[in-house]
Amino acid sequence: MSVLGAVSRWGFAKGTIAALLPNADRALDWVRDYGDRDGDGFVEYGRLNDRGLINQGWKDSWDGINFADGTLAESPIALCEVQAYVFAAYMARAWMAYDAGDMAVGDELTDRAAELKKRFNEQFWLPDRGYFAIALDKDKRPVDACASNMGRCLWFGLMDEEKAPLVAEKLMSPQMFSGWGVRTLASGMGAYNPASYHNGSVWPHDNAIIAAGLVRYGFVEEAQRIATALLEADAHVSRGGLWLDPVLLEAYGDLHITNAPMAGGRITIDISGSTTSVQGLPEGMVLHRGHRPWMTELVEQAKLRKEA
């Protein structure tokens, strides 16, 4: 629904939009009839058997939704960003209705969106923390971990304007902003682990959405910090050396790579079979023709150095 609304907003052919609307409306029917499992106005998920995914949002790891103390949330779970997706779907359908002259449907969907926004800002907001809960658990308790998910609510415009500055401040705090991007989970949380899948790692696509949301609410400088951090992280490599150990199939021919980023510069790589050449290596960087030492080899080398 959101994608269809977006292309309609960009001026896509109205006839095509009208032809696709029945399918989009079925998606809204699903939200009403199946997505909101208990009729509380929020869309929840919960697996139907013990083989299904425990968590069914973008953070789909088994331990990805947890309280501030690290306790796992129990399903059915209503994620904050899922409510933002529903809000966006309502607004998209309302716009397409208005654009087609169907004022009654437009008004109905606008009212639904406004009610969802009101209830979301009441039930997910944690006034003593200054941020939104990542979810509501099976007992409708706010899951109070400080997580990146709320950034998606910025992107879709679900947050009240007066709450957005506190959320922006929290997202850019030392506990959330690593210097390379916004963490999936704040460093002070019980489940925090920077090497985890969803509990402290930094995801580029997550940060791109957060940056877009910050811009929507007027926090341009904060969005620029995130964008700069992602680009700097992308360009960061070990300056110790470049290891190449290719074995190309003869049938594939030679490989020629130009303008490849490397430690602030650009290099050219030519590979023919198992032979490599590199031009443009930054000063001080060494090309190693062969495999990077395996962990077992590094340990053995360390032992030999100690014995010597």
Automatic annotation (TrEMBL):
Residue ranges occupied by any Mannosylglycerate hydrolase MGH1-like glycoside hydrolase domain in the UniProt entry: 56-241
InterPro entries xref list: 6-hairpin_glycosidase_sf, 6hp_glycosidase-like_sf, MGH1-like_GH
Gene3D superfamilies recorded: 1.50.10.10
Source organism superkingdom: Bacteria
The protein's name: Glycogen debranching enzyme
Species this chain originates from: Arthrobacter ginsengisoli
